[in-house]
Amino acid sequence: MRAQRLRTGLKGWGGVGAMAFACTLAVLFALLLPVLRSHDTGGETGAGGETGAGGETGPGGHGGTRGGQARAAQECADPEKQTLAPSDADGPTIDAIQNRRGEKRKLIVGVDQNSYRWGYRDPNSGGDAELEGFDIDLAHRIAQDVLGDPDAVQFKAIPTNQREPAIENGRVDMVVRTMTINCARLEKVAFSAPYFRTGQQLLAPKSSSITGYDGTLAGKRICTAAGSTALSTLEQDREDGRLAADTDLGTTVPNQLDCLVRLQLGEVDAVVTDGALAASQAAQDPTVQLKGDAFTTEYYGVAMKKDADDLVRRVNHVLREWRADRAGGWQDSYEAWLRPTMGDDPAKSEPPAPEYLRTS
Predict the structure, then answer these.
(1) Mean predicted confidence (pLDDT) in 28-39
(2) Which of 48, 168, 288, 328 maximizes the CB count within 10 A of its CB?
(3) How far is residue 43's CA from residue 110's CA, in Å, rounded to a whole number?
């Protein structure tokens, strides 16, 4: 890992001027590209941080059952365990990646470029800032194993609601983008073993009367990302009576950071997203805070095509080594990126030892 990706803090981020400028850009973007159309408009980004117009195509629950579709209950009870055992063997998917020629010989990874400390550009680095963060570290680690070069990555910025289509349509080899493993998504994509533990949590202004995921949400306007676990969870909870019937869930956005902008503009009363992302957003804006504890348990995984068994096994092999490494591994990435927002105890965020599907 390059030293610049292992910095433990960013000077100047969160300043009033920077936040105002970021908000202005985000609002203008939302006005110019409503709902980001119905397809992926994310740019493609090389490992060096350059964005291009064209693209090379790749080869061909919220911790429980709420939001799941069409899977038997026994299969859906633990979606984070529906993955294949690790292997470092090559296969057809990996062969296709390795056989790309010249500058196109890269791992194509869908990521976020707006999630602070997960996948984002440092606004203080000057010039064409490289993507960096916890998810970006993992993508570089996978590229090192598959192609022998941590920088052999072509990053594609993918909106939240386009993560699964980008995989299904072969626009990316995988998505490493704070993506929760759940049963509905397992109908469309395959997941690695979990690499991070989190849960849904509320973000609201410090002055708000909202106290958590409780009755104080009655009549409130909540923002979520379209296609997110947060939205499906809230819709199901409202239907089941766990959330007040008059809670307004009508505000959805293509990217989670847009919810923070809506909150800052007073267009919504609260944001619901993964606690890991909510903590990062609270670090960006000192006027907001997490309200109450996480009300679900969820796990992030690397998403790939359903038939890419060799790549799934290979990523699980990488994850096993990444979590075990004393230097340059999971713990170092947590220290570098997440300790300032997630706290001093990484054990709360590290998933349990993985379990795999039977293969015999």
Answers:
(1) 39
(2) 288
(3) 10
HSE-CB of 202 using CA atoms within 13 angstroms: 24
Nearest residue to 233 via CA among 222, 220, 78: 222
Model pLDDT for residues 217-254, shown as the tens digit of each residue: 999 999 999 999 999 999 999 999 999 999 999 999 99
CA atoms within 13 A on the CB side of 315: 29
pLDDT at res. 45:
55
| 358: number of Cβ within 10 Å | 5
Q: What's the length of the chain?
A: 360
Helix (H) or strand (E) holding 140: helix 134-147
The whole-model pTM stands at 0.80
Q: What is the pLDDT of residue 310?
A: 98
SS3 label, residue 176: coil
Q: What is the DSSP string of 151-171?
A: T-EEEEE--GGGHHHHHHTTS
SS3 content of the chain, % helix, strand, coil (to 5): 35, 15, 45
Of 195, 206, 175, the C-alpha closest to 299 is 195
